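To assess whether ligand presence alters the predicted conformation, the chain was also submitted together with F7E. Input:
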Amino acid sequence: MKALITGINGFVGSHLAEHLLEQQIEVAGTIRNHSTLQHIRHLLPDIHLYECELRDPQAVEQMMIEVRPDLIYHLAAQSFVPVSWDSPAETMINNILGQIHLLEAVRKLGLSSKVLIACSSEEYGQVEEDEVPVKETNPLRPISPYAVSKIAQNYLGYQYYKTFGQHIIRTRTFNHTGPRRGEQFVTSNFAKQIVEIEMGLKPPVLYVGNLDAQRDFTDVRDVVRAYRMALQYCEAGEIYNIASGQCHEIREVLQTLLGYSTATITIEEDKSRLRPSDVKVLVGDYSKFHKQTGWKPEISFEQSLEDLLRYWRTELA
Ligand SMILES: C[C@H]1O[C@H](OP(=O)(O)OP(=O)(O)OC[C@H]2O[C@@H](n3cnc4c(=O)[nH]c(N)nc43)[C@H](O)[C@@H]2O)[C@@H](O)[C@@H](O)C1=O
């Protein structure tokens, strides 16, 4: 069994590669030109790496001719919501075109690969109070260009399933965190700032954005287990929420992380971290996925944040 992970060097990609290798699945992955290999350096002897720009249809087709994967985990994307306001067109082109080229290559080569499309809870956008925890059937009311790009990825997946019968499964993953989380995302950003303060690398002021937002966090190691199970057990053409079902204010993320540190820290709002519009509350109902696969999260919110702090303490040592 051979798997292809697009964006294998990313946060989720690196954890998924580790998990699939543990399951004795052969792993290939794409990276972009000049990508950092930091998260996958330890895996290099065991994986096949392809430098492939997903925006380039010929490059994608050539890579697919070489790999001919049984399983495709399409993770590569511009995934930071604020960047999607600074560069909406880039976000659309990157997230939508890459997927079109991938699915077109599957079609042209006549492959029967099972494909997982990593969609996002951001698609739900403006969720009403009486709609939580949200089910897959909830209306989509996107309030960021990133959310719109993920809705396009989602419906392209649906369309290729319907039109060409491709074995496509879409997962709507809620926020996830854990070791190696990119430093721009809230959990990792706060954790890194705390460690920098502990180490005397910056003054004892921790900058924050909107602490009122509420999110549902799953540990990345639970998420990659869910992705593996999705292609093993889920039905083509369907969409599934992957979530913990628990809601935390961002203020609570901050307090939990601070609770693991003895440093004295002042909190300050940094206006540049506030967004033109921010989803107020996202908490997911993952019962459809649980019913299909038996999956449930195993790593607690607290454990995940503690592991993330430990990661930064090691990285910055
Ligand atoms: C499911 C979804 O999950 C992620 O998107 P996100 O929810 O935007 O993640 P985040 O960690 O950037 O923000 C979470 C919340 O935290 C608030 N917040 C406060 N203070 C800071 C702060 O200082 N930095 C950041 N980044 N956020 C802050 C911020 O305003 C927002 O309300 C991506 O994986 C995305 O790819 C995805 O699909």
